[in-house]
# Entry
Amino acid sequence: MNTSFFGELLQTIVERGRVLIARDRREAPLTRSENLADHCETLLSVRGEASGAARASEILARYEELTIGPRIAFFEALSERFGPNRARLDAAIAAWRAKPDDATAAEVHLAAEPRRQELFRRLNLAPGGTAALVRMREQLLDALDRRPDLAAVNSDFVHLFSSWFNRGFLVLRRIDWSTPAVILEKIIRYEAVHKIDSWEDLRSRIDPPDRVCYAFFHPALIDEPLIFVEVALTREIPGAIAPILSPDRDPLEPEKATTAAFYSISNCQRGLAGVSFGNFLIKQVVEEISREHKKLSTFVTLSPVPDFTAWLNRERKTENSRVLTEADREALANLDRPQWWQSPQAREAVQEPLVRAAAWYFLQARNSRGSPADSVARFHLGNGARLERINYLADTGEKGISQACGLMVNYRYDIDDIEKNHEAYAESRTVAASSVVKRLVSKTGTELVKAG
# Structure
C-alpha cells in the first residue's frame, strides 16, 4: 500500500513537471529526432525536482524505443561524454597537492566521480526508473562482449546498484501456494537450475510441509523477485536430485527432519549480475527455518557443477595431464558413448577416475585470477561453506550430464566454522573440504560417494 501511494505521488510530481517543461520555451519536450545524450546533459543541469523527474521519465521512455544500433550509440555517448569533469578533476588534484587535507581530498573524490553516475541517479527519479535502469544494464551486458570499451559504464552501474540494492533495502518473503500468481509465474520463468515444467511441478516444490522457498524483493521492483532459493527438509544429506524433485515421493513430516538442503538458487535479474544477494539469502533463510524447525542441525546444498565437463574435456586432451593417467583416459572414453550412464559397464568404468578427477578439480584447479575454477564453488566457499561430498550420477538430466557428467556436490554450512572458512578463503583462496574429498585426490583414493 505504501509503495503504491508513493508511486502515485511520484507520478503526480512528474505530470506537474511535464506541465512546467511545456511552459518553458527553453526546455521544450523531447522529440524523436533529438539526440538523447543532449537531453541527458539538460537533465544534469535541471535543478527543479518536478521538471527533473519529468525529463528523466521522457528520456527513459525514448530509450525504450531505441533499436540495437542507436542503443549502442547511446552507450558510447555515456562512455565518451559523461566521464569525470576533467577540468574540475585537474583543479582538485592541484589543490590537494598544494594542501593535502580532508577538504581537498573530498573534492578530489567528488571530481573523480563520472558524471554518468549522477545521470543515473537523476534517471532513477522517474516512476519505474530503477526497473528501467536494470533493463538498461542488461542490454549493456549484451553488448559488452563485443564492446569492451563500454566497461567503464558497466562499472558505474555495478557501483550504484551495489548501494541501491544493499541488504538493508531487501525484503525476505516466503513463497508458497498462496503467493500471488504474478510472482509464481516469475518463479517458474526464472528457475535456472532445475526447470519447472508446470504449475503442478511448482506446487510440489513450494506447497508440501517439507519444502520451502524464499525470495528477496526490493521496494522499487514491485512483484519482481531478485533471487530465490528452494529448500528440501530431509532426514539426511541428499546425494541425488531426482528423489527431491520426484512427484511421487512421500512428504516427510517436518518435525522428523534434521537437514535443510538448498537444492536450487536462482538469480532473477540479469541486469543485477555482479551484485551479490545469495550470501545474505542463505544466511537469513537458515535463521528463518531454524526458528520454525528446532530439530534442524545440518545445513547443506545439493549443487550443480556447471563448469566441470568443459574442464575435464580439456584435461583429456592434455598429453601431460597432472590429473589423468593413461588408464584414466581409457576409462573416461566411455563418456563419449551415447547414454553411457545407462550402461552398467560404462558406469562402473567411469566412476572412480571421474570422481577422483572432480576432487582434483575442486581442490586444485584455478582460473586466471587464482580462484577455484568452478563458479558455484567460488560462491559457496566465499560464503564460508565446506565442500562436503561429491555425488556420482546425482543428476542424469540433460543439463546435469552435459555440464557435469552427472556429478553434483554438497557444500556444508557449519555455523561454528563459517567465519573461519570464509577468512581462509578470502586471505588465500583456501578450499575448505572434508577428509573424504581430500583423500579422493590421491591416486589410490577409493572412497567414492554413490547416488542413493
Notes: Strands lie at 171-174, 211-217, 227-234, 259-267, 298-301, 386-391, 408-412. The CA atoms of residues 158 and 273 lie 8 Å apart. Confidence is low (pLDDT under 50) at residues 19-33, 444-452.
